[in-house]
Amino acid sequence: IVGHEFTHGFDSNGRKYDKNGNLNPWWSLQSEEKFKEKTKCMINQYNSYYWKKAGLNIKGKRTLAENIADNGGLREAFRAYRKWIKEKRQGEEEALLPGIDFTHNQLFFLSYAHVRCNSFKPEAAREQIYTGVHSPSQFRVIGAMSNFEEFRKAFNCPENTTMNRGADSCRIW
After folding, report:
1. Can you give the residue ranges of the Peptidase M13 C-terminal domain (predicted)?
2. What whole-number distance in Å separates Cα of residue 155 and Cα of residue 28?
């Protein structure tokens, strides 16, 4: 969650504010254009997700800032976790849980997904699509993880499947 919130400082909204929180766009025109070009991939990715519960597709442009934060936050949280193992534990992994047949990295990703567990009634699901700025939880997980190479490696996801977008992966930062 910390990585998610941190990434908001560099999304489609946060980029408009300076280091003191004042409305003062600080990116060069070239940076803005490059950013907009990269966001097209993510908008299209999330537009393609159909939420059966709502009977609607996600609105990739409406949810863009949160999708950027989900993708960047996952990446930064994983990087921080691996750095902690390397620096604070001298590269030694923690003991695995007895009877659990998952690697440390797999457990990291499972815990990330677990935070997003929830349930919606169809009316609430439609309302979220029409007015919400967050993608539905299952697509917050699928979207971010399918774009992240470390997730794909951890679970050996075959290329060009739901959880491995391969060359079609979107990355803003």
Report:
1. 1-166
2. 39
